[in-house]
Amino acid sequence: MDFENHNKIKSRLVASIDQTQCCGMKSYCTPLGKCPTGAFVWSSVANSSEKGIISIDEEKCNGCGICAQTCACGIIKMIETPL
Ligand code: SF4
Ligand code: SF4
Question: CA–CA separation, 17 vs 9, rounded Å?
Fold first, then answer.
């Protein structure tokens, strides 16, 4: 059996963020605005224009890895998820 191709069919890469390590500060968030699919989203906390949280929509994520490569703190990982 061709295990490599078998695994590609059964799973895909998506970005996953460690919320406990993310400051959420908008002006410091280097991946913000770089996601090609709109999966990487900043949301305000308590109507602040600066303090927020980052969320990643797995359904929209195409696994390109840009956010993981550009996160200043290196807290975004690309993980395999079942299809
Ligand atoms: S650069 Fe990384 S750690 Fe900083 S706010 Fe953005 S996602 Fe969070
Ligand atoms: S891996 Fe690519 S598509 Fe997915 S959230 Fe990051 S930048 Fe967006």
Answer: 24
Instruction: Taking residues 66-75, report their average pLDDT.
Output: 97
Q: Which ligand is nearest to the CA of 78?
A: 2
- Report the nearest atom of ligand 2 relative to the CA of 62: 3
Which CATH fold topology does 15-82 show? Alpha-Beta Plaits (3.30.70)
- List the one residue out of 66, 64, 59 whose CA is nearest residue 81: 59
Strand partners, 54: 42
pTM given for the model: 0.88
Q: How many angstroms separate the CA atoms of 75 and 83, rounded?
A: 24
pLDDT tens readout for residues 44-53: 999 999 999 9
